[in-house]
Amino acid sequence: MTTKGGRNRNGGGYSDDEDDDSHNKSQQRQRSSSSRHHHHYHHHHRSDRRYVQQPNQSFQQQSYDPNKRRKLGGLNDEELTEDKLQIALFTLGQKIDSTLEQTLRDLCTTICNDLSKHKKTIFNILNQCIQLVPERVTIYSTLVGLLHASVITFGSDFLDVCVSAFKENLLSYKFEIIQRYIRFFSDLVNVKLLSPSSILALYDTLIEAATETNIPQVRTDFFVSCVLTALPYSGKILSEKNNTELGRLLYTIDKYIYNRSKIHTPILQVWSSMEPHPQEEYLDCLLAQIKRLNQDEWAESQIFRPYYSYADTLFSDASASIVHDLPMVNIPEHRDGIVYPPPKIVFRMFDYTDVPEEFVLPGAHAIERYLIEDEISNILHTYHTERKDCAMQLTQIRSNNKIPLNYMIVEVIFGHLFMLPRPRHLELFYGSLLLELCKLQPSTLPPVLVQAVEMIFERLNTMKTACIERFVKWFSYHLSNFQFTWAWQDWIDCLDENPESPKIKFIRETLQRCMRLSFHQRVIEIVPEQFYKLLPNKPSPVFKFEENDAPVFGSEYAQLLVKKIKERAPAEDILRILNTVPSPSKDDSSLVTPSSSTVTQSSNELTYTMVQIDIFVSSLLWVGSKSFTHSFAALAKYHQLFKILIESEEQQIQVLKSMYEIWPNHQQMMVVLVDKLVKTQIVECSAVANWIFSSELGTELTNFYIWEILSSTIEKMNRQVEKHHNELLDLRRQLNISTTVQSASSASLQADPMPTEAPTVSSTDEKPSDDAKMDEGETSNNDEEKSKSNNLKRRRESDDDEDDDNERKDSAEKMQISQPPMDEATAKLQEKYEMVEERLSHAREQQKKLYLIVFQRFIMTLSDFLNECESKNVDPVSTPWLKWIMERLQEIFLLYHEQVFQYVSTFESLIFTSDIDFSILEVFQQFCALRA
Amino acid sequence: MSDLSVPFLFQKSVSLSSYRDRRFSGGEVEQDKKLLQSTTLYVGNLSFYTTEEQIHELFSRAGDVKRIIMGLDKQSKTPCGFCFVEYYTRSDAEQAMRYINQTRLDDRIIRTDWDAGFVDGRQYGRGKSGGQVRDEYRQDYDPGRGGYGKRIVQGKEMEKGGVI
């Protein structure tokens, strides 16, 4: 990134490296013909047989996906037309140029010629375009208008297809597509295909849905927003032809929006402060923009309206084409379980004073601001899978020269990145997109980005913790792509602030992430000396049992274990040594589990003490401390031993404590180790939650990695539930199928594709066992270990393995199912169904328990803090601590609202009761309002 | 909504490149099939000094990483500039192809490609000298990948020997 000082090393850096790469590639290619040993990776665009055979010479500029058509024998006429049209229509208007007018005319002629033969295909692709490429809707309506003017039957035929597609999407509640059709229909008024009165009738129908009672606000919000977002397209013509009705419509919308509840707004706002810009509720803002547009007599300068270039064809008085009425459409009724688009806020970080003088940033309530933002958002969504195309499309947005397009692009991208509850796309997408934009516009975009970072930095105090975390992750990633160049000295002034203050925390966490993307020494080199106190510690392990003058209790055992583990001793040997560890002192009950003297289960083994577990875990992690792979290999090798040693939650927490003692300076290591411990079921999710809130981690609680661990743990729990849920759905489907098949007295279950696919699945699925997997990254002398360690039969398989095993078992079962007569197979399926059902309900219980623990521990921790503040006469709101923890509670609610909402009544009656502090209860109430 | 139904527009980054593993045991059709279902990526042009930790930090931003296998020099058993990253799901691996390919790690533009799935032995460089083949013949000086190409170094040493 170019810094304020104007250093710009990056623009060139990219191309240099790419040249290097292609240089290497061409070398390899040259050699490939002569060298026998050619088995190297070289990447050039596919130019093999299949590609050459693509019958799309006229569209060579498009890189065509070779996987799309597998047939080598050429395509039939229909497919050929489909390919040709698909490319022509989807790329229509993608580039700004003066040829669009002619291209549209030519395309119209081509389609007219093909229409009688390929009507279905043409209509189908046009509908796809309307659904998938909303940012070019006016180009498609122009084309449709031209076709309508050229072919007498086109209008009514096409309308029929469109309306039925629209109805279909209404019935299946595809909200985004519904909205896109409504906007398209509105624009068809402009090309004289639809009558203004019939589009008004559609608006009235939608608004009527807003007067229903006993339905969620999010439903009515959606229909109202559909009308508001379509009005910029149709408003002008409606105000000329049906001004009274339009006025009445606006009045109804105004009244609705005035009366709606906005309790949900604060929890969605990126900044808690209204200064310098209010984070407006989206419908409030949109209504204000539309009202302003109405006052301006619907004159706007942003929407690209190519139809005006065809006045001779479209708007001549001699035109014989008929204006159609849009048929009446029924809005399907509300059903429970429909998830409507959630409410939003409008993210704004710039105003006109922030942009250079030659530009004019449209005001917050100017319709142009909305229209450009909407176009940017649409492009982000349409092209989110291709970051380079996405960047290219963004820079080609048509706007007048006064619009500071880069400011608006950066604002919208940050708005998406910070969106609560979560961004629409992967955070990494936005980061990689900004990189592409910097590459495309190396002199104009980076300065805007730098300004944005500075502004966000200045507003960190009121920024939501979840958003600060995303900001840290993006910023460190961005820096890592620009040699970590940044004007750090500009931030020196804040270094005297409270070490927990948002700005200091931001810098500290950013440096931590920079280290994770590079290495410790590198981070030391990138910052001025004054920042050294914020640098992460060197991420080295700490082994408390190391030989020194004052050895701690158990050192001799630990050292013996280290030696044995290094020698790859079998688990039995390790266990034997552990069994010789005496309890440190009989009366020291804090170190011994309460049940330590009782005999467990069937065997005569005692539960292992915290000391024994600590010695084992410390020694094992110490031996594996060289890398992630070494640590994972160590855990995998002694997995069975873990299963013998660790039973109770207290013991599980001890594993985590020992890990923390070895790795207090390596946050990323802790993140991946906890992940592994949970995945391999050595530690349960609830133990992680309890550990995170334990007193040992008290001072760490405001550090971001702790929440990285908690979220990842919660997500694993959620995924587990989801997995069983999907299995159940799948079985339900199979059961239905098998009964249908049975009733049709078909010979076997093979009608069901699952069993026939099963053998392929298992053959491609020959994954090595967990032990083998973990060892592969290491050197070869591990191989013999594999067989040794495989001799130890594990009591429980790891999560990874369980999946594989289940798959194998599944396929095996499926194979069997197809053998015996039907009723037996069905009975087996039924049996399995019940088993999965039970697993699911067990997982749900676990999930509920996990959330209960998390919320309970939040309340305890927050209440303790509030009490302490009271006794010390400190205003808690003035402390950064309260912000960090309270907003994490908010974040958990937001991130996992789908899951939390399932158990909301339990939480309400058990923990979020009136006796807890109101500031905590308020978070819960705001959360509940999200669905109201 | 099936917003990815137009492959030539929206699936370019995840489609297969022209590279095929010549040592793959099976036909091209089978290899292609595996590549299209794969959850494993080959990652190239890494610095020899780039660690598993760094790779994990970057690639876990695309999804849950199952394992990372560092490419090692066959002789020295030290990293030689490539690795395999395996994800739990295809869609996470696709995200990495979309957003990580051709971006930087350790100040180098790295390259990702589909891999048919790790098999033992693949972690070693296939060059004569133990590293990757590309480092055998490389003409430029690349401090992140052991300086000059191995053949060039050999040539220079021979030259030197001749002079002395």
TrEMBL record, chain A:
Composition bias, Low complexity: 53-62
* Every MIF4G domain range: 82-294
**Which keywords belong to this entry?**
mRNA capping, mRNA processing, mRNA splicing, Nucleus, RNA-mediated gene silencing
What protein name is recorded for this chain?
MIF4G domain-containing protein
Q: Where in the cell is it found?
A: Nucleus
Matching Pfam families: MIF4G, MIF4G_like, MIF4G_like_2
Any coiled-coil regions, as ranges: none
- Give the record's GO CC terms: nuclear cap binding complex; nucleus
A Gene Ontology biological process annotation? Answer: nuclear-transcribed mRNA catabolic process, nonsense-mediated decay
> What is the phylogenetic placement of the source species in the record?
Eukaryota, Metazoa, Spiralia, Gnathifera, Rotifera
Species name: Adineta ricciae
> Where do Basic and acidic residues bias regions lie?
764-776
InterPro entries the UniProt entry points to: ARM-type_fold, CBP80, MIF4G-like_typ-1, MIF4G-like_typ-2, MIF4G-like_typ-3
Family, as annotated: Belongs to the NCBP1 family.
Which region ranges are annotated with the description Disordered? 1-76, 742-824
Bias (Basic residues): 34-48
Q: State the source organism's domain of life.
A: Eukaryota
The protein's GO terms of the molecular function aspect are: mRNA binding; RNA cap binding
UniProtKB/TrEMBL annotation, chain B:
Q: Does the keyword RNA-binding apply?
A: yes
Q: Which residues cross the membrane?
A: none
UniProt-listed GO biological process terms? mRNA cis splicing, via spliceosome; regulatory ncRNA-mediated gene silencing
Q: Which GO terms describe its cellular component?
A: nuclear cap binding complex; nucleus
Keywords assigned by UniProt, alphabetized: mRNA processing, mRNA splicing, Nucleus, RNA-binding, RNA-mediated gene silencing
Q: Which domain of life is it from?
A: Eukaryota
InterPro entries to which the protein is assigned, alphabetical: NCBP2 (IPR027157), NCBP2_RRM (IPR034148), Nucleotide-bd_a/b_plait_sf (IPR012677), RBD_domain_sf (IPR035979), RRM_dom (IPR000504)
- List the GO molecular function terms: RNA cap binding
Cell compartment(s), UniProt: Nucleus
Main location (coarse class): nucleus
Domain RRM intervals: 39-117
By its UniProt entry, which PANTHER family does this protein fall under? Answer: 20 KD NUCLEAR CAP BINDING PROTEIN, NUCLEAR CAP-BINDING PROTEIN SUBUNIT 2
Annotated family: Belongs to the RRM NCBP2 family.
* Protein's recorded name: Nuclear cap-binding protein subunit 2
Origin organism of this chain? Adineta ricciae
